[in-house]
Automatic annotation (TrEMBL):
The keyword Metal-binding does not apply. This is Uncharacterized protein. InterPro entries: Aquaporin-like (IPR023271), MIP (IPR000425), SIP1-1/2-like (IPR044222). Belongs to the MIP/aquaporin (TC 1.A.8) family. SIP (TC 1.A.8.10) subfamily. It is found in: Membrane. It is a multi-pass membrane protein. The keyword Disulfide bond does not apply. Its main location: membrane.
Length: 242
């Protein structure tokens, strides 16, 4: 029953996250126009980072209130592979990942249902702009960099939670900008599945190879690098306590 509750919480949090994501772009464009910063190259990056920080902070609180819910299979796998989720298992992921994917579909359908037509036409979600092998490598490398950065920030970074959130948001925005000309990007299989379902390519090999296998492979490698090279050793932790 605990796994089912967790899966339902994941589905809810994922749908809320994916529903909210498109508004980051909309608000960034409106704020840039209001401040007349469209011509400033880094303006969009800073505005998006601030908005993403607020969004991540709120969703962290919601996730904790839901008992540790997650909206990204990539992050869940990274924590598990790094040995940081002792109560997580392959069985739990087998149940929770489909729930997150279902939440992605609900989130995409909901946001497309409330946006005006002119905005809906600009919201297509992640799309492959290169060949499949390059797309797989792009999603894998971006997810590797993102997950490794998140693990370092969360467990080896500054103690201030607001600084942590700001660094995670900046890393995420930077990865999104880097991968825009390759895969969209996604770095979140649940997000990719939601958009693929709405756009009727959810049964394609492209989706599972590029947008599922790529990010999950990158997340696993990042977790192993962190676990064996960067994670604090039990010995050092005992020395600190002593």
């Amino acid at each position: 029953m605990g796994v089912l509750r967790s899966a339902m919480a994941d589905a809810l949090l994922t749908s809320l996250w994916i529903f909210t994501m498109p508004f980051l772009r909309i608000f960034t464009l409106h704020i840039s126009a209001f401040l007349r910063l469209q011509a400033v190259p880094l303006a969009a990056f800073f505005i998006t980072t601030v908005l993403a920080s607020l969004m991540m902070f709120v969703f962290t609180l919601i996730g904790n209130a839901l008992g540790g819910a997650s909206f990204n299979p990539t992050a869940s796998l990274a924590f598990y592979a790094a040995g940081l989720k002792k109560d997580f298992s392959l069985l739990a992921m087998a149940v929770r990942f489909p729930a997150q994917a279902a939440g992605g579909v609900v989130g995409v359908k909901a946001v497309l249902g409330v946006l005006p037509r002119e905005l809906r036409e600009t919201m297509k979600g992640p799309s492959l702009k290169v060949d499949m092998q390059t797309g797989f490598l792009a999603e894998g490398l971006l997810s590797f960099g993102l997950c490794l950065s998140l693990l370092v920030v969360l467990f080896r970074g500054p103690k201030n939670p607001l600084v942590k959130v700001l660094l995670m948001a900046a890393t995420t925005v930077g990865c999104v900008g880097t991968g825009a000309k390759y895969t969209g990007p996604s770095m979140n299989p649940a997000n990719a599945f939601g958009w693929a379902y709405v756009n009727n390519w959810h049964n394609s090999w492209q989706l599972y190879y590029v947008y599922w296998l790529g990010p999950l492979t990158g997340a696993t490698l990042a977790a192993w690098v962190f676990r064996f090279l960067l994670s604090p050793s039990p010995t050092s932790s005992k020395d600190k306590k002593a």
